[in-house]
Structures are given as C-alpha cells and as structure tokens.
Amino acid sequence: QAYRMVGTEDVRLFCNGYYAEVIIMNPFTLEIIFSLSSRVNPDWISALYVLKPHTCKDDVVLGLTTTGTVKVWTLEQRDYGPTDNPVYENESKQIRCLNALTMACCSQHQRTVLIVCSKCWQIYDAGDFSALCTVYAPRGVRWLGGEFLAPDRVLIWTDDGKGYLYKLPANSIVENKNFHKQAEDGDVPYLYSLLSVSSNTHLYCSPAIRFYESLQHGKILIRGDSEGAINIWKIPELSPAQLSVIKENDSHKKLAGLSPFVCTSLSKAWESMKPNPVGILNQLDCENVPNIKLTASIYLAGQSRLVIGRQDGSIVIIPATQTVMLQLLHGNHQHYKDWPPHQILVGHNGRVNCLLYPHHMHSRYDKSHLLSGGVDFAICLWDLYAGTLLHRFCVHAGEITQLLVPPNTCANPRILKCICSVASDHSVTLLSLSERKCVVLASRHLFPVVTIKWRPLDDFMIVGCSDATVYVWQMETGIY
C-alpha cells in the first residue's frame, strides 16, 4: 500500500508477503527504511491497511496474519528514519479469520473494518475486533477483495471478475442505534446490485480489479483480464429510499447485472488503427499467400539480428537495423526486391513455440548455436551462420513450452554444456549440446510445470508444478 506518512512529503510503500514483517520502502530507490515486527505470535502478514485516525496525530498500521492474529502498530515520527531496530506492535488479538486476502477501514468514521477471505467477508468493530456480520461466498465463487463505498455499503469482487454491492445490516452501521448489538432476524447484508460483463470468455487467471474514486465519474471499479480487456463500471449512488424500493421490487426477481460503461481491449485498439501498423516481416508477404502468424521471437543484440518463429514451423532471421530502415525510413533501399537479406530455417512440423540463444546467457555456449522448440514435440539445434540443422532432439511427448539455461555455478561440468527444456506433457529434460543427447529426463510430474529453480552447488534441479507440488531432481543421476 502506498501511503504519505504524517510529517513527511514523501510517499512510502508498506509491503507484506510471505514473511512475518511489514517492510516500509522508498518507492523510488527501493531502500528499506524501517520494518514492523511482532512480539506475540509472529507469522506471515496476509492483509494490511494504513490509516491516519481522526483523533490521533500518529499513523496506525493494521495487520492480519495468516493464522488470524490482528496486529496494531502506532507509528510516531521518530520511527520514520532509517533504522536497523524494528518497530513492535502495540496491540495484538486473535480473531476467527484465516488466510485473509485484503483489509479495509471505513474512511468516514474509521470504526468498522472489512476483512475479505476467499470463502467469506466480514465486518469487524475496530474498537474490540468483534465480528458484526459475515457473508459466505456462493458455490463455485471465491472472494478476491473489497472496499467500503459508504459507512453502510460495501463492494466485494470475486475471482471471476464480478462485483457485488451490499447494504450492511443495522448492527454494522456506526450511526445506527443498533450498532454492535445482536442482529435482528432477517437483518442481514442485502445484495442490491451486481457488476458483471456479458462475455463468458475463459480466462487463464483471475482478473486484476481495483476500486477508484475519480473526479469525473465518481466511484468506479476497473477490471483488467488476461485477454487484454479493460472494463470500467460506475458505481451507482443510491439513496436509502431507492434501496428500499429495489429491495421490495426484487424480492422475487433474479438480480440483474449492471454492465460497464467502458469496454475496450488491446485487440480492439489494434483493429481501430488506420492505417494498420507496419509488420516486421511485411516485405516477405505475397499477395496470393495468406499472412503467416508470428509465434516466437528473440533479438540477438551482439549481431543486431532478429530471429522470428512462425506458425508454419519456419524460422526467419533478418538484420534488425535494416528491417527498421525499410519500414520507417524513406530511401533507395525501398526499391530493392531482396533487401534486407534474410535467412529461413525449416525443420519444424508446425508452430514454433520458443527460441533460445544460449550464448546470450553465458559465453560458455557456442556463438553459432540457436535452439527452437515447437508444437511437433521437437527441439532443433541450428547453426546460425551456416543456416543448417545440426541436431533434432525428440525426447518429449508434448509440445515444447520453455527453453532455459542452467546457472554457470553448476558443480557438474557436464551440465554446463546442457540446456533445459519443458514440455506440455509435464516433462523436463537436460539436453547436452556437445554430446547431442538427453542427459536427464524428469517425467514423473502429475501436473503442468510452471517454474524451474536451481541448487547448482548441490546438483539439484527444483521443479514447481501448477498444483503447488515441488520435485527435487539430482541432475547427475536423474533421481528425485
């Protein structure tokens, strides 16, 4: 969270994560200024909120650990300077809230706190941190975050990109005479509006969602997803009388969704450009042949060449500087038929997924070696200068998704001549470029591989999968 602390003009970043401290950093230099630590039940801080109380001259930091311990730090100005001594909490209390995602305090009166977990969201009294109301997520839905719209209303968003607007019950509203009392029967948070999009496009990950108050549009909710789409909703400002009418009329109706007033995407932006932007390989296009999609690319800085993999399995190598001249600068070179000169490598049966020039990573690799991985389960080793296929590795049972280089500190000299490949069949291999064969085949992963880490001095390759499992392989023996 970015926050301007009392008595200073600079903004500070309050950072929490998979550690027990709250780190306060300078956003421009990323220098750690000081940290907040815990004496009682130290644990990872999962949610954080910084505020300036109306009745206090000091800043207050609210933190919540993964195991449900609320921490309160009161920061005095003497704590703001660089120091090696951590600032410890002033208060600590255990509540029934595990693995919280976000925490927000009502800005109007700062008496109520919204805590959002994946399965439920809750309103707490900031005075004694007693729970006032709880709403559980519908089946198949996970809460992702939330904010106060007003002292009596909250906005909660989900991992499928929808926003839920709730009216709080009387016992959760500070101005109400029934605040902090036992809730009456039927007096529960009321869902009065739903923010959603009409398309049902499958997303690779949860959308990024932010609540923002703008001068022009008021309160808005912004959503960006993995398809490059941006949606913006204007939060409706409803009076208590309008809410009562909605509650009466919608008691027997299905809740209708409110559509965003802005819907755009990267694809729409490209399509709206007139004339269309120039393609890097437009000089190779033929009138009678449909354009071939570009699927992978890598820039060879030392040689000023651009290597591009295409949908049909071909790899095109072109001089980067001359290509830019052709597309952007006028001159006699635009009248040459075969300018700039290019090289085409043909060896894959289908789309080229990834490219690797290992000499970029470390000088121990041959300058002439280029590697490509394709949808045909193969990894091709090329000679850049001769334009020939040196070897074709066929050890995977799925399309190649990544090509990596082991670190230079590997204790085994044999591994230093290898590259690492990852495929869609959940396998990982170490391929020796000098021996032209597979050195290690790690193929017992049950789920897709998402990350590769190394313990080079211990001769370990660590494979992380999408189900959060981790496999540790010994590179010399291929045993895990």
TrEMBL record:
Keywords: Repeat, WD repeat. WD repeats lie at residues 442-480. The keyword Repeat applies. This is WD repeat-containing protein 7. PANTHER family: RABCONNECTIN-3B, ISOFORM A. GO terms for cellular component: cytoplasm. InterPro entries: WD40/YVTN_repeat-like_dom_sf, WD40_repeat_CS, WD40_repeat_dom_sf, WD40_rpt, WDR72-like.
